[in-house]
Amino acid sequence: MVSIIARLKKLESLTIKGRFPVRKSENHYWDVTNVEFPSLKILILESVKMNEWEASDESFPVLEKLYLLFCFYFKEIPPSFADIPTLQQITLHNCNDFLVDSAMNVKREIEENTGCDSFQLHILHNP
Question: Which InterPro entries match (predicted)?
């Protein structure tokens, strides 16, 4: 299905929503290392059923904003996101500590690689 969506060459915003939490014994894996979303600027993943996610910096070459909402089972943001030159913002809302640490590592890498501290990382939790 992802490769079909990637054929939409002018797609600038994509929201993927899951419906049910994953069981810890299952391994839900999303690999887009060989898939390119050439115009995608905004990616929103909400309540998705994935533990692992693989991507290259070529998967999302013009991505500007990444939103991860209620992604309780993700282990990390692919480290290659630090190599996306257009990435300006990551927002996490109700995500686990592993994902928070991963986002902070991506932010640190971007700041070290570019010498710029304008990258925005938003970490939100329900009160």
Answer: LRR_dom_sf
